[in-house]
Specification:
Blueprint: E1 11-14, H1 23-51, H2 58-87, E2 91-93, H3 94-127, H4 132-135, H5 138-163, E3 173-174, H6 181-187, H7 193-226, H8 231-259, H9 268-293, H10 295-313
Helix pairs in contact: 1-2, 1-9, 2-3, 2-9, 3-5, 3-7, 3-8, 5-7, 7-8, 8-9, 9-10
């Protein structure tokens, strides 16, 4: 660290799309539209599950948690982005940055874990149908759901505590449009070895382990489906997990693109877009996937719309 003057910054400046002239004009409406679709779509899924008695099963119970996480994950970043676009001032205070980072890491980790839990639920339903009610009883479901939230917050607490000890000597400009630990580490003049080790351990337990568990679950699921003799039975079994499988592919596909792309060779705008997609695209697509591919969800939504139409047209 030499003789560099270490200091704690008061605010950070987001570079993000700063090189695009009038970027706030062109990007405000797309980001607003994405946020509205995300919130309204996930709120619709959550409300249907709570109100319709036909959705009182473990699969939909976990889906309601996924919808909550999607709303939270999108709300951590997008509102601040919209405010900055409105005021044409791409800044965030130090305390806001730490808070944003804490909740971003929490909800991202919890989402990976809830997807793994949903994969286990599908495994139990398809591979262990006779023991399903025992394996996925109400107590087990509540415990698993609570564990995903707690683990996400504990993981984030460690990362945020380490991140709050970073010092910044030469710049407070972050090459993105929201706060996360890796961009902060890049501009810090502190020794980041401990944080890098913590990130490595976290990536194993909160990233790699849930991913491998999900893949292993689907290996057993596909093996069981292939043993079903009737084509109708195979199709019915696969259809119960198709939506979840698509969501998993989108989530981890975005994650791999974000965290494993080359560190050089990308423009600032491309780098910002890729990192932002991971936080806003999966939460937006998840309710669309479940509503378009799930017959029960489409049926329940149709009933709600019909009831609303009757109420509006009734004098």
């Amino acid at each position: 660290m030499g003789g560099r003057n270490q200091t704690r910054v008061v605010e950070f400046v987001f570079l993000g799309f700063s090189s695009i002239p009038n970027s706030h004009i062109y990007l405000f409406l797309p980001f607003l539209a994405i946020y509205l679709v995300t919130v309204l779509g996930n709120l619709m899924i959550f409300t249907l599950i709570q109100l319709d008695s036909s959705f009182q099963s473990p699969m939909y119970y976990f889906l309601s948690h996924l919808s909550c996480l999607d709303i939270c994950l999108s709300s951590v970043t997008v509102p601040k982005i919209l405010v900055n676009f409105s005021y044409q001032r791409q800044t965030i205070t130090y305390n806001q940055c730490m808070a944003q980072m804490f909740f971003l890491i929490s909800f991202t980790g919890s989402e990976a874990l809830i997807l793994a839990v949903m994969a286990y639920d599908r495994y139990a339903a398809i591979c262990k149908p006779l023991h399903y009610s025992l394996l996925m009883n109400a107590k087990v479901c509540t415990t698993l759901a609570l564990a995903t939230w707690v683990c996400g917050f504990l993981d984030s607490a460690v990362h945020t505590a380490l991140g709050s000890n970073l010092y910044f000597c030469e710049t407070n400009q972050i090459r993105t449009i929201f706060c996360n630990l890796p961009p902060l580490m890049k501009i810090s003049c502190s020794d980041t070895q401990a944080i890098e080790m913590a990130l490595g351990v976290a990536s194993l337990f909160v990233g790699v382990a849930p991913f491998l568990f999900t893949i292993l679950s689907y290996v057993f699921i596909l093996s069981s489906i292939l043993k079903i003799h009737s084509t109708t039975g195979k199709h019915k079994a696969f259809s119960t997990c198709a939506s979840h499988l698509i969501v998993v592919v989108i989530y981890y596909g975005n994650g791999l693109l974000n965290y494993n792309r080359p560190s050089t060779g990308y423009s600032l705008e491309t780098d910002t877009l890729v990192s932002t997609m991971f936080c806003i695209i999966p939460p937006m697509l998840n309710p669309l996937i479940y509503s378009l591919r799930n017959k029960e969800v489409k049926g329940a939504l149709k009933k709600v719309l019909e009831c609303h139409t009757i109420l509006v047209t009734t004098p």
